[in-house]
Each structure stands twice: as structure tokens, then as C-alpha cells.
Write a structure and sequence with these properties.
- The chain is an alpha/beta fold.
- The chain folds into 2 domains: 147 residues, Rossmann fold (3-Layer(aba) Sandwich); 166 residues, Dihydrodipicolinate Reductase, domain 2 (2-Layer Sandwich).
- The chain has an 8-stranded mixed beta sheet, with helices on one face. It has a 6-stranded parallel beta sheet with strand order 3-2-1-4-5-6, sandwiched between helices.
- Strand 2, helix 2 and strand 3 form a beta-alpha-beta unit.
- Helix 4 packs parallel to helix 5.
- The longest helix is centred in the middle third of the chain and has 17 residues.
- It is globular and about 65 Å long.
- The model has no long low-confidence stretch (mean pLDDT 95).
Length: 331
């Protein structure tokens, strides 16, 4: 393979633009094409990031022999079908979360990637966060002792992504805040625990703001249905019991009345020797004069903080990604 990975981005919405920005700052990659069904979004993205080719149909893009890898930034219901087609076209694939809208479809993606011997990575951004990487090092040193319980959460005060967009319609999104926010924190939490084997789950979802047209924020570039459909959850809570005996409590909310001074998102790990919280990374433990709190600067981290840069390096160097597809399948 050449020194530079020839990449294409499928989808030029808000996240697709982020992919293009990352590729434009990666010295080991080049954005050679994009696929976007909106002619206006395609023109704007191509001009902004100097992408030489654009296609209205992603299938035509996948037929191009001079493209080594694609990054997929599409509505959730398209993740599975497009990823499978890309892998069958012998492209390496970076796929936005969630991997798919069903476990069966996610398993098929992993199977095809193995059969085609292509690199597949889900873009779980929090694994690359420097505070997550610092926390991972602490966990691997065993400083917490036995970790018996964890809590992960992402609760927005008012953060529904444009009511009526694909985010708020189940047929396109598969789910609401759980698929949008919860998957990020659950993945980072299980990654820190190095434990993805779940024995049981109990949970509950609610839709208390979106159906009333409340809690909206202006994010994204996708079209909005004038009927402003909202048939997904805007709050979800779950308790996971892992096969190891540990428990994980998870919360996700697009909108809720809460103290604005609290963390919007984070992870808390309880151990027999110390506790650890994110974000930022803080360690809580006993000291000679009582309790002490240590906040980590996390200046040096083992992996790039940019998920796209990491993916590019893994493909070019033949390394296993920080986000193995098998772990994403379990999330």
C-alpha cells in the first residue's frame, strides 16, 4: 500500500465534515472523494476541503479502484448496508456509531470484514480522549484494586438534535439518546473495565420532552420533516450485570431538568482501594492525613486523540485498532 491512505467520506453532514477535517490534518491520508445525496452539501464540502471528486450515489464511489478506505457518516439505518457493501468492495471501513440498528446486522458487518480481510473500526471517540487514556493506564496498573461497580452517564439539559430530523425518527435512527449518547459512555466504561461480557440488563426508556416539542438544539445538516416526528426515547436508564459479577449503571438523556453545575457526561468507577471519575480524570484514595484527590494532566497518551488518524495508521501499519470490531458488536 502507498505511504498515504486514499480515503473517501460517505455522508457530508455534520459528522462527515468532521471526518473531512480530520483527514485534511492527517499527513498519512488524502481525501480523494466523497459521496453525498445533497448536491448543495456535496459542493460545499468539496470546496471547503478541496476534495477532487464527489458522487451522488455511494455505490459509484465504491466502484472506484483508487480508493483504499471509506469513512461512513450516515443516518444510523444506513450504517449496516453501506458498511457491508464497502467491505465487499475491498475497502477498509471506519464506521460511525452505532455500528448498526440491530445485533444481527452488526454481526454481519464483523463477519464480512473478517472474510474480506479488511480493517473495520467503529468511531468510538471517547476511547481516544486523553482522560480516558489516562484512566486506562491507571486501571491497568491495578491502582483501584477490585472494581465492583461503575456508573456512566450523559445527560443534556436541552440537547435533542433538531426535532423532525432523522435523529428523532425510529425508522432512520433505530433509537434516540441511547443510540446517540449512551453508546459512547457505555463503550468507554466497558473498555476501562476490560469487560464486555454481560449476563443481564434491565432498563427503562422515556419520551417526556421531544413529543412536546421541548428540549431541542440546533445541530446537524439533515433535512427536517415538517411534521416534526419524534418517536424515540429522550431518556434511558439501565443496570447491567456482568458475568464477572460487576454492575454498571447507565443513564442517557437528550433533555432533563438537572443541576447545570454537575458534569454533563462522565464515568465513575468504584474499587476496593480507590475510586476513579471522568471527565476529567480524577483519582480518589486514602492518604496518611485522610482522603486525597489526584487530578491527572494526561499530557502524554499512547494513542492519537483523533479517531480518524488512528484508523489511518492502523490500516497502513497493519495494526489492530484501539476499538476492535468484536467489542463494538457487544456494545
Amino acid at each position: 500500500m502507498a505511504d498515504k491512505l486514499r480515503c473517501a467520506v460517505i455522508g457530508a453532514g455534520g459528522i462527515g465534515l468532521d471526518h473531512l477535517h480530520s483527514l485534511s490534518t492527517c499527513h498519512r491520508a488524502a481525501a480523494v472523494a466523497l459521496a453525498e445525496s445533497s448536491a448543495q452539501r456535496a459542493r460545499e464540502a468539496s470546496a471547503r476541503f478541496n476534495v477532487p471528486r464527489s458522487y451522488a450515489d455511494y455505490r459509484e464511489l465504491l466502484e472506484q479502484p483508487d480508493i483504499d478506505a471509506v469513512t461512513i457518516a450516515l443516518p444510523n439505518h444506513l450504517h449496516g448496508p453501506v458498511a457491508i457493501e464497502a467491505l465487499k468492495s475491498r475497502k477498509h471501513v471506519l464506521l460511525e456509531k452505532p455500528m448498526a440498528t440491530s445485533a444481527k446486522e452488526a454481526a454481519k458487518i464483523v463477519e464480512v470484514a473478517k472474510n474480506m480481510k479488511r480493517t473495520l473500526m467503529v468511531a468510538q471517540t471517547l476511547r481516544f480522549n486523553r482522560h480516558t487514556q489516562a484512566a486506562k493506564a491507571i486501571m491497568e496498573r491495578g491502582e483501584l484494586g477490585e472494581v465492583y461497580h461503575a456508573r456512566c452517564f450523559w445527560r443534556r439539559r436541552s440537547g435533542i438534535p433538531r426535532i423532525g430530523s432523522w435523529f428523532t425518527q425510529k425508522k432512520f435512527a433505530g433509537g434516540g439518546c441511547l443510540y446517540d449518547l449512551g453508546v459512547h459512555l457505555l463503550d468507554a466504561c466497558l473498555h476501562l473495565l476490560k469487560d464486555f461480557e454481560v449476563a443481564s440488563v434491565c432498563g427503562q426508556t422515556f419520551a417526556k420532552f421531544g413529543p412536546r416539542g421541548l428540549g431541542e438544539m440546533d445541530w446537524g445538516k439533515s433535512e427536517v420533516d415538517p411534521k416534526r416526528l419524534f418517536d424515540v426515547e429522550d431518556y434511558a436508564v439501565a443496570l447491567l450485570r456482568l458475568k464477572s459479577g460487576r454492575t454498571v449503571a447507565m443513564e442517557a438523556a437528550w433533555a432533563c431538568f438537572q443541576n447545570q453545575e454537575t458534569r454533563e457526561y462522565g464515568i465513575d468507577l468504584l474499587g476496593t482501594n480507590a475510586g476513579l471519575s471522568l471527565y476529567p480524570a480524577k483519582l480518589f484514595r486514602n492518604a496518611l492525613d485522610g482522603l486525597e484527590t489526584i487530578q491527572f494532566n494526561a499530557n502524554k497518551v499512547p494513542h492519537s486523540e483523533d479517531r480518524i488518524h488512528h484508523f489511518v495508521s492502523c490500516v497502513l501499519d497493519g495494526r489492530k485498532p484501539l476499538v476492535p470490531a468484536e467489542e463494538s458488536l457487544k456494545v
